[in-house]
């Protein structure tokens, strides 16, 4: 193992001098997470704290005191249209999200104790239409409630009859986990994919590059065994994958701790992971990066040249990406509780990281995930060692 | 000393056909002499040297290098050999000193021995002026000097030189040839593969002509000329190769 350590140190030294390693393992994750967090912070602020909702209306003929009331609200800006057709066209063209069409003689209809039907015209495929629709529903609901209350009072009945049922929202106090729901879906995905892509850029040079330059042959002619060479390279690659993956997490923690106005809404609980979070995350990430390092090394040991290796790695990256992407959505489905989930590599790791960050990690899930990843990592390392011990590593060029 | 007995290496090509890269080779190389492996491209020279270096396993036959069997004691064999070719690159992000330290550590040299041998090699091959420059920044000649230093660093008794001057300019080639002559003078066993006749004539004490994986002729330059009745080594070589092709047809 002493000679494997020499190989490891040499690989690390070369990595430290390679700008591509710095860019792919450090700059890449930092750039991506900073960009994503600022974008998500902006999105969250836009969605949850709208400053002024714009309501587009066609008011019809006759008096409309309800519309006047809406126009007086500071939270709303009412834009009126001369014709319904003009407003509908703007909705269809995507210029506006929703058009409220009031009937003619609106006030008169109400005075006659009839229902005045207001049409809400919107494109069902427009996701942002829900915001003005909800505002309109709330305003109309408020008017309905006040009208009913007045009527009940006039009839000498208790005002509570206007609201026989009431839903009181009582959210539980937040746990110690870091980050809000939106950021918690994203972090595990990025941590997992960087554990793979962190080593992507250098593994080809580390193995197929050495084949092409014949330095691998010189290395194999030394008394160092192929197993020691494979292990030395594996350890160096594993370190790079781990650094890349943890860079994402560290960056999130730093951004959360900075408490910037533009990202504050993403970290309602602050961003200080507890020791338990850190241990749990490491228990998941370390075997995962070992597995990825083993895969990367095996593939490059098999490939004839750098180009062939890159082709295989690109295909494998899709296999890595799929469960990582799915991990972002599985929480919204019942599938998240399925018994097989902790046994699906990558998906289980991403879910564990998310649960650890939100302080909801189940120990059995963590143990199963770690054990699965350790088993697969051992298999991948064994495969990499086997590939290095085949003489085809030199002759298959 | 290097000795092979009926050494064979057969590969399967992509179509599943057996390729006899080395087929029943018997050679013997003794200390203090340069033994040439003379053959065209694809004759089996590199495969033979790879077999002797233990990086590939023989299909049949046996061989010993510095008294160690290549099949049963590969690590001991590798401990006792130095390997040099022009295709061997250096690690571009290491300096010559770091390269030598790395290989010294891999050969299990003690710190004191490594330091002594490294400084000797740096002076011997004129590396001092660029010893701390990254190998990527070195000229071809400088790189080859570092490669030679790396080959000889652990003072191996046996040297395998696989076309070590191919593609080099005249001055760098001379450096390599001087290195070979010096190694001979200090009693090393040298197997030197080439297809350059002038180099073989200058350096080799004994030549093996290898073609299609088989030894087609052997002897000193004079013996080969006498056996083939040709006036030059080049013609003697062609005579052996062409008569071999004729036999195969």
Can you give a write-up of this model?
The complex is a heterodimer of chains A (397) and B (249). By secondary structure, chain A is mainly alpha-helical. Chain A folds into two domains: 2-45 and 178-395, no CATH class; 52-162, abc type-2 transporter like domain (abc type-2 transporter like fold), CATH 3.40.1710.10. Chain A has helices at residues 2-16, 19-48, 65-72, 84-92, 106-111, 130-154, 181-213, 215-220, 226-258, 275-302, 306-329, 347-357, 363-389, 392-395, and strands at residues 53-58, 76-80, 98-101, 119-122. Chain A has a four-stranded mixed sheet, with helices on both faces. In chain A, helix 7 runs antiparallel to helix 9 (226-258), helix 7 packs antiparallel against helix 11 (306-329) and helix 10 packs parallel to helix 13 (363-389). Chain A is elongated and about 100 Å long. Chain A starts with a helix and ends with a helix. Chain B is α/β, with parallel strands linked by helices. Chain B folds into two domains: 2-80 and 158-248, P-loop containing nucleotide triphosphate hydrolases (Rossmann fold, 3-Layer(aba) Sandwich); 89-155, no CATH class. In chain B, the strands form two sheets. In chain B, strands 7-8-9-4-10-11 form a six-stranded mixed sheet, sandwiched between helices. In chain B, strands 1, 2, 3, 5 and 6 form a five-stranded antiparallel sheet that branches. The mean pLDDT of chain B is 91. Classes of the chains: A mainly alpha (397), B alpha/beta (249). The interface between A and B is medium-sized, with 23 and 29 residues.
What's the main sheet of chain B like?
6 strands, mixed
**Global structural class of chain B:** alpha/beta
Structural class of chain A: mainly alpha
Q: Indicate the proportion of strand residues of chain B.
A: 25-35%
Strand order of the largest sheet of chain B: 7-8-9-4-10-11
**Count of runs of 4 or more consecutive helical residues of chain A:** 14
Which chain pair has the greatest contact? A-B, 23 and 29 residues
- What is the N-to-C succession of helices and strands of chain B? EEEEHEEHEHHHEHEHEEHH
Distance between the termini of chain A: 29 Å
Number of strands of chain B: 11
Shape of chain B: globular
Q: Per the principal axes of the C-alpha atoms, what is the gross shape of chain A?
A: elongated
Task: Summarize the amount of helix of chain B as a percent range.
Answer: 25-40%
Q: Give the spatial strand order of the biggest sheet of chain A.
A: 2-1-3-4
Question: Could you list the spans of chain A in which at least 5 consecutive residues all have pLDDT below 50?
Answer: none
Q: Provide the helix percentage of chain A.
A: 55-70%
């Amino acid at each position: 193992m002493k000679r494997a350590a020499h190989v490891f140190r040499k690989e690390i030294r070369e990595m430290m001098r390679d700008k591509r390693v710095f860019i792919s393992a450090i700059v890449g994750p930092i750039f991506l997470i900073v960009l994503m967090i600022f974008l998500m912070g902006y999105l969250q602020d836009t969605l949850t704290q709208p400053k002024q909702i714009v309501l587009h209306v066609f008011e019809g003929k006759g008096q409309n005191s309800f519309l006047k009331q809406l126009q007086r609200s500071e939270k709303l800006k009412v834009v009126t249209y001369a014709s319904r057709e003009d407003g509908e066209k703007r909705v269809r063209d995507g210029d506006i999200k929703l058009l409220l069409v009031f009937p003619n003689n609106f006030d008169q209809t109400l005075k006659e104790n009839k229902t005045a039907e207001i049409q809400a015209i919107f494109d069902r495929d427009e996701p942002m239409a829900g915001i003005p629709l909800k505002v309109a529903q709330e305003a109309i609901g408020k008017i309905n409630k006040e009208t009913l209350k007045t009527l009940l009072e006039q009839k000498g009945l208790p005002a509570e009859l206007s609201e026989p049922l009431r839903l009181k929202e009582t959210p539980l106090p937040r746990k110690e986990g870091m980050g809000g729901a939106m950021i918690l879906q994203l972090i595990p995905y990025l941590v997992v994919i960087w554990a793979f892509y962190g080593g992507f850029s250098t593994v080809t040079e580390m193995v197929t590059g050495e084949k092409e330059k014949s330095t691998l042959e010189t290395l194999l002619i030394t008394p160092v065994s192929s197993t020691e060479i494979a292990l030395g390279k594996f350890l160096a690659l594993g370190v790079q994958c781990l650094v890349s993956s943890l860079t994402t997490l560290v960056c999130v923690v730093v951004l959360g701790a900075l408490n910037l106005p533009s990202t504050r809404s993403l970290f309602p609980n602050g961003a200080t992971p507890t020791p338990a979070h850190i241990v749990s995350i490491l228990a998941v990430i370390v075997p995962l990066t070992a597995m990825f390092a083993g895969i990367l090394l095996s593939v490059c040991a098999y490939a004839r040249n750098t180009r062939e290796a890159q082709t295989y790695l690109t295909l494998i990256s899709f296999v890595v990406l799929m469960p990582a992407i799915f991990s972002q959505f599985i929480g919204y489905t019942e599938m998240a509780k399925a018994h097989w989930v902790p046994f699906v590599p990558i998906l289980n790791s991403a879910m564990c990281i998310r649960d650890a960050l939100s302080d909801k990690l189940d120990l059995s899930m963590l143990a199963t995930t770690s054990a699965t990843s350790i088993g697969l990592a051992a298999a991948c390392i064994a495969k990499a060692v086997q590939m290095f011990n085949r003489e085809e590593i030199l002759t298959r060029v | 000393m290097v000795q092979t007995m009926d050494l064979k290496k057969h590969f399967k090509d992509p179509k599943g056909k057996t390729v006899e890269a080395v087929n029943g080779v018997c050679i013997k190389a003794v200390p203090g002499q340069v033994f040439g492996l003379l053959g065209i491209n694809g004759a089996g020279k590199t495969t033979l040297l790879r077999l002797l270096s233990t990086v590939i396993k023989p299909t049949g036959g046996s061989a010993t290098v510095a008294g160690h069997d290549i099949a049963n004691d590969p690590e001991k064999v590798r401990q006792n050999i130095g390997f040099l070719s022009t295709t061997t690159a250096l690690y571009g992000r290491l300096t010559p000193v770091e390269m030598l330290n790395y290989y010294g550590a891999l050969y299990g040299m003690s710190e004191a021995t490594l330091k002594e041998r490294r400084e000797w090699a740096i002076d011997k091959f004129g590396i001092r002026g660029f010893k701390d420059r990254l190998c990527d920044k070195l000229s071809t000649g400088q790189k080859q000097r570092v490669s030679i230093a790396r080959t000889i660093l652990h003072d191996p008794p046996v040297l395998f030189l696989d076309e070590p001057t191919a593609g080099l300019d005249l001055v760098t080639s001379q450096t390599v040839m001087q290195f070979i002559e010096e190694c001979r003078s200090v009693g090393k066993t040298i197997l030197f593969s080439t297809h350059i006749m002038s180099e073989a004539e200058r350096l080799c004490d004994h030549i093996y002509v290898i073609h299609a994986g088989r030894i087609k002729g052997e002897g000193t330059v004079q013996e080969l000329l006498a056996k083939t009745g040709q006036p030059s080594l080049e013609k003697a070589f062609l005579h052996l190769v062409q008569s071999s092709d004729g036999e195969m047809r």
